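Our consortium's second objective concerns turning raw sequence data into structural hypotheses that experimental partners can test. To show how far this objective has progressed, the report includes one record in full. It was chosen at random from the queue rather than selected for favorable results. The single chain below, 205 residues long, was entered without modification.
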Amino acid sequence: MLLNISILIVFIYTVLCIMFVQLNRHILTNMTGMVVAMTTGLMSNLTIGVILGMLFAQSLVVSTGISILFCFLIGYLIGRPLSLLAVVEGIGGGIMGGVHGAMLGEMIPKRQWDVMLFIMDAMFIAVTALVIYLIHDRKHREGEPVAAVSSVKEKRSALPAAPVRTSFWMIYIVLPVVILCVAAWLGHSPSAGEPPSSGHEMHSM
């Protein structure tokens, strides 16, 4: 159950990041755009790589190959609205995350999949939230009126950070984490009439 929810969360949040970048591409220039593209590509494909490594256990070539395809797709989609350099950054970061994620997913024992998925999903949600806040903060700073051209840099440096909208972050961060906790708990709960596992079957391998 947690594996299916993880796939859904990665898909939804990656699409949200791509759409948010598309809508605010006019303010994502130079280093900001490249950081956004690299971070989103890296974290998305790291989580996808871990999931694929679990889905295609004992077949690292298949999980790595599919992960690399996602790296090119996500890297291109996240960087295309910005620049060719952002596309390269997104693909490069994605390949690094995807390959390492596939190896990590392959190495994790099956009895520890839920723990690893919970850690990866929580980290993925936190990093994408930071990326969206970075874009929101940049939009906030760019939108401030400036009286004189000569004092643009001074005024921007003195501007406070963008306000945090509690309702948005509750939905974006807290709600998915609660869903993950419930899914992890349900996944570990023995079904009706099924005795709890004693753990001795792990040594039969």
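The partners drew two points from this record. The radius of gyration is 20 Å. The helical segments are 2-23, 30-55, 60-79, 84-107, 113-142, 152-158, 166-188. Both points have been shared with the crystallography group to help prioritize constructs.
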